[in-house]
Amino acid sequence: MAEDKYNLKNPAVKRILQEVKKMQSNPSDDFMSLPLKDRALFFVICMTAFLLERSLAVNFDVTSYGAAGDGVHDDTQAFKQVWRAACNDENQNPSILIPSGRSFLVRPITFQGPCKSTNIQIQLSGSIEAPEDPEAWTGCENVSWIYFTGVFGLFINGSGTINGHGQRWWNTPSRTRVNGTCTKPTAVHFNYCNGLRLNRIRLVNSSRDHIILTYSKEVTFSNIHISAPKYSRNTDGIDIFFSSQLRIQDSIIQTGDDCIAVNTGCSDIHITGISCGPGHGISIGSLGPNNTFANVEDVYVTNCYLEGTENGVRIKSWQGGSGYARSIHFENINFKNVENPIIIDQNYCNGGHSCEPQVSAVQVSNVTYKKIYGTTSSKLAINLNCSNSTACANIDMENIYITPVVPGEKIFATCNNAQGKGSSNSPPVSCLSQG
């Protein structure tokens, strides 16, 4: 048993392991001839050592697997090898180390699970760098640069950076293929990653979405920082699909698109302590494109600050969809210079799909807005643009106070087929009964 493998510092633990070594190194002793209390002690020591062997973290440094970390040489194979070693390790807490002061050039890569441990950790202290030239990209059939799938209990922690170098992609149409396989890739995609945790990492300049989460539950993102310029197209911060029991907290997101988008198949989503802007705000949707079914429920957006965003808190769905978006709560939201602070748009259209009038829509209901205040750069502060065929039901607005950036300008609210109640709101929302 290699003591130095675990970097043990606890003197008691060291003594136990040394005792086991001493007893194991003297096979001439007849175990059964030992006094009963010594045999019991030996058994306890061996069991303790076995449990320590299973529980203590084992470190896998990516540089020990051939990674140069100079930002020039391709380190993709080293990352594949270190993942294979850590994922197949029998110990309960394997940890992959990406050391500080190094830049690791990595091409599109898949980290496949399940692993033998459900507590695998990546300690990100250095930076992971994508190729800068789109022509250098190959192998991103998953439309992702870094793709985790089927990895349970993954914990990515550290002060390091994931840099997508998306500048040359931003003016490329989303569906344009490079080298026959690559469209604009998402920086990091987590798929079927139950128990995922991200903490303190930084993601910058993805060519498209920075993080996509799909088919996962019991997930926590905390203290992360995502940034891309305001003009960078489609660079959403976090996009979520078919996931539940998710908490996103205490993070800064500055991008050219939605800071966070909660999409179909999501429930029990808690978004709190987010600083958003620039970008397109915090969105539910878009839902129901191409006449599809959508379902979103139990979403809580609280204690968030949005500055200089195109939208504030938004629910958006396409005409012709079906399903529901319900039990959605926005509370303690502060705006500064936001163009469209509160918006429900059931006639959403970005030009990518048919926008002809249709007779069905995703049902929006049981939406609450409470204690929302700040400034808007437009005259339309509240816009409840619901479907002519399917009304927005049970909208509840309380203590909304939005003022113009330019003092003295008049701002207003507008409604189309929205029903509910409101009280203590400025500007007043005429379609909501005074509760």
Automatic annotation (TrEMBL):
Alphabetized Gene3D superfamilies for the sequence: Single-stranded right-handed beta-helix, Pectin lyase-like
InterPro entries xref list: Glyco_hydro_28, PbH1, Pectin_lyas_fold, Pectin_lyase_fold/virulence
Claim: Cell wall biogenesis/degradation is one of the keywords in the record: yes
Top enzyme category: hydrolase
Location(s) in or outside the cell: Secreted, Cell wall
Keyword Hydrolase attributed: yes
EC number(s) given by UniProt: 3.2.1.15
SMART domains membership: PbH1 (SM00710)
Recorded family membership: Belongs to the glycosyl hydrolase 28 family.
Name under which the protein is recorded: endo-polygalacturonase
